[in-house]
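Standup notes
- DV: blocked on the single-chain target, sequence here:
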Amino acid sequence: MKKFLYVSILFALPIFLSLIITELLLRQIPNDYSYKKNYLDAHSNEIELLYLGSSHVYYGLNPEYSKFNSFNASHISQSINFDFAILEKYKNKWSNLRCVIIPIDYFSMYSTLEGGIEKWRVKNYSIYYEINNSSRFSTNFEVLNGPFKTNFGRLKSHFYKNSTDITCNKLGWGKNYNSKDPQDLIQTGKAASKRHTIENNDNLCFDNNIKTINSIIKFAKNNKVKLIFFTSPAYKTYSENLEQKQLNNTINAISQKANKNLNIFYYNLLNDETFTAEDFYDADHLNEKGAMKLTLKIDSLIIKN
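- DV (later): unblocked, structure below
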């Protein structure tokens, strides 16, 4: 029995060591999460306008066009609970924060990152932000989130070609959705609307997201910060295929919050006609032209109020 254990340990040790080395090397690759965390560590006290949210903001709001000292702290598939977690993490460092922008889109109230198809992204908050919103052991490790082939490719690209996983500009806006490479607006509209529709409305998820929104509103009041919620503009092939009950429940819920709070505002830009086909990368994401237009529009709404 002792011999078996000894042989087993000898066999497992190289594997265990290789996993540790791989994990440490993967964490050396700069990415959007580590970049934004480092930026907030250094500059949170300077930020006047903070953008949070999912990919609709990541690709849709470019701080370079804002009149304010702004930063885009959104991430792909970032749900409301992680928006609040980022606010809370730097709660003692928002000394110049004047306004927070958060999207409330068709899927926002009925989903969380942990419960979605991209739940593997939760590890980025645990590892790089040191935000532990999950009880899953795997969220603490790069090697447990993603195929070995993918991770090996990332290591090879970084250490041999000096590439990184950073896809945002210096102020956090996602650069990859370019007007030179537009997607089919009809196909992407139908696909995205179907993907974002919750067949069996999850009331528990909805209620939990309402609680998180209440916490964000409380944070804004306590810190005398304006809070702007908005529904992102989308092309008609997306908005026309949305399930009305889910959409109405979402809009009504956030409208009620805005109506009851003086420092809270909500704007529904879903069908804003100032955004045309040329502004979209796909049916529910803006390209760089649309991002400039939306950033300037949000600025104007802030100044208006």
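- Follow-up: Strands lie at 49-51, 70-72, 99-103, 226-231, 264-268, 280-282, 285-286.
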